[in-house]
Amino acid sequence: MSVYTEVERSELEALISDYAVGGLVSYEGISDGIENTNYFVTTEQGQFVLTLFEQHDFNEMDYFLEVMTFFYQHGIPSAHPEADKKGHYLKTLSGKPAALVGRLGGEGVSGIASAVQCQVIGEVLGKMHVAGQQFKGRRLTERGADWRQKSAERVLPKLDAESNKAMTAELAFQAQYSELNLPSGLTHSDLFRDNALFEGDELKGIIDFYYACDEYLLYDLAVTVNDWCIDESGLLETSRYQALMTAYTQERELTTAEKTHWNTVLRTAAMRFWLSRLQDKHFPREGELTQVKNPDAFFKILRQHQEQPLMVNAA
């Protein structure tokens, strides 16, 4: 969530007038995150987050807004899109698809997550995966095997010899990922610490569903583990891992195949974010407020999975 598109106050006032939320009081850009333009918006009747979608067209946006509404209606604490006076969620602002979403309390976990926070996020992710089996919408992932291959071809010339060799070898290792035939369904696919808002150890809501898609449920779990369960050294740590995995598997038990392929999926999830951060570093997009995250963090986690494969039930 960065600011790539600057919005004039008059434009935003015109947009806000379409909603029954009172007049515009103030707004400010949000620098956290990467993909879309986001503003905190305060009106006479509440606080919201305005998102302008930089990577998705109008035809895609209905899916994401339906996902958010679905989880909200199924008891998952999550951000909910605001309907305008005509009942529409999707708008146009500065030529981009846009949506106004109720601002939740709490803040993203900016530091190392506590074991309790890991437990909470594991539980809610398990509930999301169970509830998501009822969701009728379908959307293929945009960050699958083809994307990983093409992204690697783009960044490989920018890497040092060690990283280049490691990435080439890992792509070969992950070549059969698409054929694992694991349980699939609706996934968040980006459930990082900054996409879950907490007050202390109390979860207030999940945000940023704009990578939601049909994927292996295990991949969604792997993305979450790779971010939430690290310690101060940036490596995965047992107590946080046990807390998250125990809470998750109490909501949804893993299949034998999922347990067998756990290390492969963990490595695939680490590779995906290593690649995307390398792209952001070497091929940055222009924006007023932007954030580029360190790609080495996920190279480090990938190395850990290569050298010390995690068991599903860590001892």
Topology (elements, then pairings):
Blueprint lengths: L8 H8 L7 E6 L7 E7 L2 E7 L5 H16 L17 E3 L2 E7 L4 E2 L6 H18 L12 H11 L5 H13 L10 E4 L8 E4 L2 E5 L6 E4 H12 L9 H14 L4 H5 L1 H21 L13 H12 L8
Antiparallel strand pairs: 1-2, 2-3, 3-5, 4-5, 6-8, 7-10, 8-9
Could you walk me through the main structural features you see in this protein, from its secondary elements to its overall organization?
- The chain is an alpha+beta fold.
- It has 2 domains: 9-103, Phosphorylase Kinase, domain 1 (2-Layer Sandwich); 108-307, Aminoglycoside 3'-phosphotransferase, Chain: A, domain 2, CATH 3.90.1200.
- It is 41% helix and 16% strand.
- It contains 10 helices and 10 strands.
- The chain has helices at 9-16, 58-73, 115-132, 145-155, 161-173, 217-228, 238-251, 256-260, 262-282, 296-307, and strands at residues 24-29, 37-43, 46-52, 91-93, 96-102, 107-108, 184-187, 196-199, 202-206, 213-216.
- The strands form 3 sheets. Strands 1-2-3-5-4 form a 5-stranded antiparallel sheet, with helices on one face. The protein has a 3-stranded antiparallel sheet with strand order 6-8-9, covered by helices on one side. A two-stranded antiparallel ribbon has the order 7-10.
- A hairpin with a 2-residue loop joins β2 (37-43) and β3.
- α3 runs antiparallel to α6 (217-228), α3 (115-132) runs parallel beside α7 (238-251) and α4 packs across α9.
- The longest helix has 21 residues, at 262-282.
- The protein is globular, with a radius of gyration of 20 Å.
